[in-house]
Design goal:
By secondary structure, the protein is α/β, with parallel strands linked by helices. It has a domain of about 100 residues: formyl-coa transferase, domain 3 (2-Layer Sandwich), CATH 3.30.1540. It has a 7-stranded mixed beta sheet with strand order 5-2-1-6-7-8-14, with helices on both faces. A 3-stranded antiparallel beta sheet has the order 9-10-11, with helices on both faces. The chain has a two-stranded antiparallel sheet with strand order 3-4. α7 packs across α10. The two termini are about 45 Å apart.
Amino acid sequence: MGPVGALEGIRVLDFSRFMQGPHCSQMLGDLGAEVIKVERAGTGDENRGLAFNRIRGVNAFFLALNRNKRSFTVNLKHPKAIAVVERLVARSDVLLENFRPGTMDRLGLGYDEVARRHPRLIYCSCSGYGPDGPYKDRPGQDLLAQAMGGLAWATGRTGGSPRAAGSYVVDAYGAMLATVGILAALQARERTGRGQKVDVCLLDAGLHMQCQELTYHMNGGMFRSHENEEVGHPLEPGPYGIYPAADGKFLAISSGPWPNLCRALGVPALESDARFDTAQKRLERRPEVQTELAAVFRREPRAVWLDRLRAEDVWSAPVNAYGDIPVDPQVQWSGMVQTLRYPEIGDYKVIGNPLRLSETPPTYRTPPPILGADTDTILSEAGLMADDIARLRAEGAI
């Protein structure tokens, strides 16, 4: 018999898909939690069906994100499905979901309704931009968060194109933040007997992971991007990537039906072009896709393209420079830019904590401490007398 996991006895009901949610629930499963993966009847997790990046017939993304789980299939649109799911909710400690805000409410599984029936439940929602604010209804995805959070600009090359990271770094970091939030809520439940809601979004995660660079930039430092012109992700088919517009600004496209993109661009001939008529071809010919599309995007300003792309439900976002971030409406709503005071320099701006816990939210109580300022207090709390502390200091022990 193996060792008991740290989360032994914790049951997670996991409605999530793609990367952030599954990465989080896999972490919980690795720590000993029982994870029930709720999947769509017939097709399952979207990652199962991706036709590219397969290992001997099975999608690599699915393999990477789903160990230590059991699969439960259900058709959430069926009239009897919610009653079945409710039985699982009643037996669970954690509910995890990463649908767009409002989806679970429409299913009768929103936080307010579920918490009323199950006050001990920890309810974790992962999204692109958070539960409210001007962007809450927009689709969120790793590349879009890299673009809007300044990471693509920071990774890009001076005088050239912004550059996306070669991994889904914001998704992965957001998953770890969701894990931290769930664990904090479980610990709080030990004291209070009550569950709570945990909210984590990709835009806030993208800002938080750059807290050092953004703190430097927002306080007068000149952070410069690197030299290169690579765009996109090495395992994503075109059009996934970053493109220049006529006004010298850049936009990111992550996904959306190829015909919709062609309509938004006003180039219907591309839709029937035999070079690009499957996702696999667009993966193999990604440089050609990007060259073709870049030429079109250079014809109009970025704002024009973003309006057209959103109208066709093509997932897109502006590539924000660091200077754009503090004035972005969603960032202002989120409170991710905080002003603190440090004794040696006065007020300064910093990226706040992205976790949203409904009952035990993060607070900003003290700035970073002066070196050794609390040593005596800490040792006194540990039971040492003033003479003991003075002797330790004289001997160089503290």
